[in-house]
Amino acid sequence: MTRTLRIGIAGLDDMKARTLRIARGEEKPGPSDPTVWFPSTESFARILSATNRAMLSTIAEREPGSIEELAEMTGRAKSNLSRTMKTMIDYGIVRMERSGRKLAPKLNYDCVSLELRLAEPRARVAEPEGDRP
C-alpha cells in the first residue's frame, strides 16, 4: 500500500485565514486536502531537492541503522545531514526509530502529492436565458 503525503503551498497570511475559517466552521478540511503546508514553492523545492530525494531513496532501500550510517552511504557530512533530517522530521516526511542504542531514520511516506493553486477559483456567473443560442 502506498502512503502518500499531501502537500500544499500557502503563505502565512493564507494559512492564518484558512485556520480561522476552519475554527469558525466556515470551512471543513476534506480527506484529500493537504496535511502539510510549505510557505513557498522555493522552500518545497529545497526540502525535496534531487540530493534530498536520493537520500530518501537510500533510507527506503538500504535502511541505515543510524545517521552516521546514512552519512557514509550518501557521502554527506553528518552535520549537514542532521539539519536536513530535522527539517524533514518537522514536516513529517521522516521519523527516527530506536535501533539498539542509536536512532535510525525511517520514511513515513512512499510518495508526495503536491497541490499548488495557481489562481483563486472564480465564482461562476450564470448566463441569462436570452443569451444562449
Protein model, in words:
The protein is of the alpha/beta class and about 130 residues long. The chain has one domain: Orthogonal Bundle (Arc Repressor Mutant, subunit A), CATH 1.10.10. About 40% of the residues lie in helices and about 20% in strands. The protein contains 5 helices and 5 strands. The chain has helices at about 10-25, 40-45, 50-60, 65-75, 80-90; strands at about 5-10, 35-40, 95-100, 100-105, 110-115. The strands form 2 sheets. It has a 3-stranded parallel β-sheet with strand order 2-1-5. Strands 3-4 form a two-stranded antiparallel sheet. It is elongated. The mean pLDDT is about 90.
Features:
133 residues, single chain, Arc Repressor Mutant, subunit A, alpha/beta, 20% strand, two-stranded antiparallel ribbon, three-stranded parallel sheet
Brief characterization of the structure:
The chain is an alpha/beta fold and 133 residues long. It has helices at 12-23, 41-47, 50-62, 67-74, 78-90; strands spanning 4-9, 36-38, 94-99, 102-107, 111-115.
Number of helices: 5
**Average of per-residue pLDDT values:** 89
Terminal residue distance: 50 Å
CATH architecture: Orthogonal Bundle
Radius of gyration: 20 Å
Topology of helices and strands:
Layout: E1 4-9, H1 12-23, E2 36-38, H2 41-47, H3 50-62, H4 67-74, H5 78-90, E3 94-99, E4 102-107, E5 111-115
Parallel strand pairs: 1-2, 1-5
Antiparallel strand pairs: 3-4
